[in-house]
Amino acid sequence: MDASIQQSAGAPSDTQEARALPSSAGYAQNATTPPAAAPSAEMKKDEEKSLFQRITEGNPYFSAGAGLLAIGTGLAMLQKGMLASASLARRQLLVTLEIPSKDKSYLWFLHWMSSQARIAAEEAAAKQLQQQGRNLSWGQRLANRINQRSQFLAVQTEFKQHDNGSVSTRFNLVPGNGKHLIRYQGAWIQVERTRDAKMMDLSTGAPWETVTLTTLSRDRTVFTDLLRDAQRMALANQEGKTVIYTSWGPEWRPFGPPRRRRLLSSVILADGISDRILTDVRNFIGNEKWYAERGIPYRRGYLLYGPPGSGKTSFIQALAGELEYNICILNLSERGLTNDRLNHLLTNLPDRSIMLLEDIDAAFAQREKTQEGFQSMVTFSGLLNALDGVASSEGRIIFMTTNHVERLDPALVRPGRVDLREFVGDASESQIRKMFIRFYEGENDLAQAFVNALKSHHVSTAALQGHFVHFKDRPQDAIDNVHYLLERH
């Protein structure tokens, strides 16, 4: 026990020594300066840093600019990625069809689209009835509403002049340049019609136009069906009719609306003429292989000559209707017509068309000179080369008419250029009788009386037709007033 007391009183404990160490160390530090401490690892790293790092880490202005630059770069990359993703999605999900104005289906589609706009307008007018709203689907009603509120419209005017002189006009507002939305076979289609004012069709001078159709890729088959419907609608307007084409620059364009086909039996020529020409044309159309095997150019030329009003042009129109062909009319005296353009037109005739050159004798007889030069720059040699030259087209049927066959150059009517010639003269007794019975059915006795009244007189079929039209449904008056017909001749 004494030993323990002595230890506590004489010598300090371990705890006391530990408590006394700081004070003694502090005292020693104040008394003497300790040696320099060795450099730490962090200090060595700071010395090893580059000048760029020293500037950037301690400069708040530079840190702010770098952040903005990083944000801008990130946004730009994000925008570029979004555009690329949108373009990729568009290529994968959408399909586009472009129809230029030079393509034949361009007019077909515009006609179809105008009819759809007219149908939509009619449905909108009928929508006032309660049952109309139930008959149309919500999609069709929405499409009609969008088309009706289109801000881009164009006008198509339907003009028709009747025989009595009255005129009926109809204005159709159709979608014009801009974007439109239509619904076809359950698929939504965006229609964009654009016009490039800087580009134009050199043949017509019209601005270059394009129609672009866009729909979902899964609905791409509707494009083919739509174009087929447009084609059927365009051809339906020509069904049972004859289209008359005229030259417009270096191309052929329809002249006016299609004409109703004229029956071949309505044109009464002298016995045998109509049958001979019809048989020859049909034999030509069905024997292309026969011509090719014998090395003969596959083209046929016909010349109808005779006095005016004898029915030459009327017969050609009726023949085209019988064959279901169209007619291309070319005036060789047209201002600005050249040899090259003539050759181009005769080489690029529309399919199933008859080329008609009327009054061929007057093409080079009277060439008037104006301030701009000759009205037509077609030479006689240019016409011959176009008819039967090296560049002449195959499968062509040409009809020429003239009132004065004696004025024609023999080179023009030689075989190869004119293969069949027929004289179409004034009405014979057989023609007069047939025409009378056609206008006044069942009046055979009066027909003979009318023929006897015109014996030894020359009368054209055109004059007879005008006489019968004037005394329509009055056969006896037509006979009693036959002197009016003779006075005109």
Largest sheet: 7 strands, mixed
Report helical residue fraction.
Answer: 40-55%
Which consecutive residue ranges, at least 5 long each, have pLDDT under 50? 1-33, 129-133, 367-374
SS class: alpha/beta
CATH architecture assignment name of the largest domain: 3-Layer(aba) Sandwich
Mean of residue pLDDT? 77
Report the sheet-strand fraction: 15-25%
Rg estimate, integer Å = 47 Å
The CATH topology label of the largest domain is Rossmann fold
Shape: elongated
Please work out how many helical segments DSSP would assign. 19
Strand line-up in the sheet with most strands: 9-8-12-13-16-11-17
- Please tell me the total number of domains: 3
CATH class of the largest domain: Alpha Beta
Fourth-level CATH superfamily of the largest domain: P-loop containing nucleotide triphosphate hydrolases
